[in-house]
Write a structure and sequence with these properties.
Chain lengths: 295, 268
């Protein structure tokens, strides 16, 4: 199992320093990177991926610097925010392009791509041009590449951004399965997702790590604090609220609920929809996790 | 499999996706360019600019040894001396245009970002891009040359001057390396002054200033031929051959040293 360690890393673009003395070791499981825009999350991933060389400090895989020995990059798979798909090629050729570029060339490569595509429900679109795919299909295809690379360290930059709840759950499910044997660094802005998927939470602010702890410890910090959400719903949500033991009030057409921070809001919303409710609007009135980001 | 072989195989796969478009474009451009040059020479030589007309007259006098220059003589010079230059320019237009577009798209869509996270060096990536361009250049140059040669052979036979075919073939072969140097200039521009790509010239299929600058190794010799027609076209082609090889080697040496990964991933 390859370990990833950042040792007093300073990094940035041109003269601008983005990461400011970051020292962190990433272990097996999912570490969620949280932080406001411009806090350095993507830069941290790029440094981990060996794309941006730190101005100072070291990025070590198994105690060896990734910038001294680029063969160490074989342990890494990186899914950037822009998926890196080539629009004029078919999905299959996109995968072949990356497999060849990574040096994975054997007679079975097409067979393996086909097998993995079934897991993601992409087998029917392998011969379609990428330009014809929806946003969700593109994200899944990009994740297919990561699966095919079968690396021990996986870096994911907002893999579920802009996806519907079904596609999001498919991707989260895959990430969860992968995390049993791998180190995954997962960037997201979604606090629900962070608590749902993360084993550890890392909060970056102005290029510095301001919090790095297990999910349980983070939740413990927030003990007693409830998240307050307002939802405008067509239909009767009460049975679902009672099933989840959620305290609720009804005020001027809006249901106001107080939920524990570790309850996944999208799962609750799915339950409401399955119950026959139509969700018209959701407002996050108070989220205690935001306090951590603001601290 | 070594990283360089893998990346080359990947970019060849990428180039194969363009085969039909490049072939169609090359065949169309080859026919239009060759036929237009010949027909203009035969029926409307006055349409050429005064500078080109003067050059054609001087070259015709030099090569045909006659003082009375007819449209037929102008056409022989056009077919023999100018067609090889224009064929090379057309092929470079297409290859360089595709390359600049591809690099721009790859930078924007995050392809380079993914590739740079792989165990491959910048040098490997450059080799992949160069192979991609050579593949596209060959795809466009071969049909353009076949069409141009067919039209030139027909024209020279029609004008009873097949002896000039040798000069045409020599010039065509001597200009071949200049296509490689043009491609390398495109890569150099795209990675060092990427802002140039956004300057549109309105010339299809060139579209942008980077492609226009990259054809200078062929454009400059033909301009010299226009301005100083007393210099032998053979000498000019020979100098183009030598300078293209020197330029290509120079660019190949400096490119890996000046390209930084950040330039491949930042789009703004």
């Amino acid at each position: 199992m390859a370990s990833l360690y950042l040792d007093h890393v300073y990094a940035g673009y041109q003269s601008k320093i983005i990461l400011n003395d970051v020292t962190i070791e990433f272990d097996k499981g999912v570490t969620v990177l949280l932080g406001p825009n411009g806090s350095g999350k993507t830069t941290l991933l790029r440094v981990c991926a060996g794309i941006i060389r730190p101005i100072r400090g070291r990025v070590l895989i198994d105690r060896k610097s990734i910038f001294d020995d680029i063969s160490l990059k074989r342990y890494i798979s990186y899914l950037p925010h822009r998926e890196g798909l080539i629009d004029e090629l078919t999905c299959l050729k996109n995968m072949l392009f990356y497999m060849y570029a990574r040096g994975i060339v054997n007679r079975d490569v097409k067979k393996v791509i086909h097998e993995y595509s079934i897991r993601l429900g992409l087998e029917d679109i392998l011969d379609c041009n990428v330009s014809t795919l929806s946003r969700g299909q593109r994200r899944k295809l990009a994740l297919l590449r990561v699966l095919l690379e079968d690396s021990q360290i996986i870096l994911l930059d907002e893999p579920t951004e802009g996806l519907d709840i079904i596609s999001r759950n498919v991707i989260l499910d895959i990430v969860r399965k992968l995390s049993r044997e791998r180190t995954i660094i997962y960037v997201t802005h979604d606090l629900d997702e962070a608590l749902l998927i993360g084993d550890k939470i890392c909060v970056l602010k102005n290029g510095k790590v301001v919090l790095y702890d297990t999910k349980d410890n983070v939740i413990a910090r927030l003990s007693g604090k409830k998240r307050k959400v307002g939802i405008i719903i067509k239909g009767d949500p009460v049975p679902v609220f009672e099933k989840f033991k959620i305290p609720y009030t009804y005020d001027k057409g809006m249901w106001i609920i107080d939920i524990d921070v570790n309850i996944d809001l999208p799962t609750l919303l799915t339950e409401l929809v399955n119950h026959g409710c139509k969700i018209l609007r959701i407002v996050d009135i108070y989220n205690p996790l935001e306090d951590i980001l603001k601290e | 499999m070594s990283s360089i072989k893998g990346i080359v195989k990947a970019y060849v796969l990428r180039a194969e996706a363009c085969i039909s478009t490049v072939l169609r474009l090359s065949v169309l451009l080859g026919i239009v360019m060759s036929v237009l040059l010949i027909i203009t020479g035969l029926y409307a030589p006055n349409l050429y600019t005064p500078l080109t007309r003067h050059a054609l007259y001087v070259l015709a006098r030099e090569f045909l040894g006659t003082s009375q220059i007819s449209p037929k003589d102008i056409t022989i010079i056009i077919a023999t001396i100018f067609e090889p230059f224009f064929a090379a320019i057309m092929a470079t237009f297409i290859a360089s245009g595709y390359l600049v577009n591809t690099i721009g798209k790859d930078r924007f869509s995050g392809v380079f970002e993914v590739l740079l996270s792989y165990p491959i060096s910048i040098k490997d990536l450059l080799v992949g891009l160069i192979m991609f361009s050579i593949y596209i250049a060959a795809l466009s140059y071969i049909p353009i040359t076949v069409i141009t040669t067919g039209i030139v052979v027909t024209t020279l036979s029609y004008l009873s001057s097949p002896q000039f075919l040798n000069l045409y073939i020599d010039l065509t072969l001597l200009l071949l390396p200049s296509i490689i140097s043009c491609i390398l200039i495109s890569i150099l521009i795209v990675f060092t002054i990427p802002k140039i790509i956004r300057i549109k010239t309105g010339l299809l299929p060139v579209q942008n200033l980077a492609t226009l600058i990259s054809i200078l190794p062929i454009l400059v010799p033909i301009l010299i031929l226009n301005i100083i027609p007393t210099i032998s076209p053979y000498i000019i082609a020979l100098l183009t051959f030598a300078s293209s090889i020197a330029l290509s080697v120079l660019i190949l040496l400096i490119l890996p040293r000046i390209i930084r990964p950040l330039e491949l991933i930042i789009t703004s």
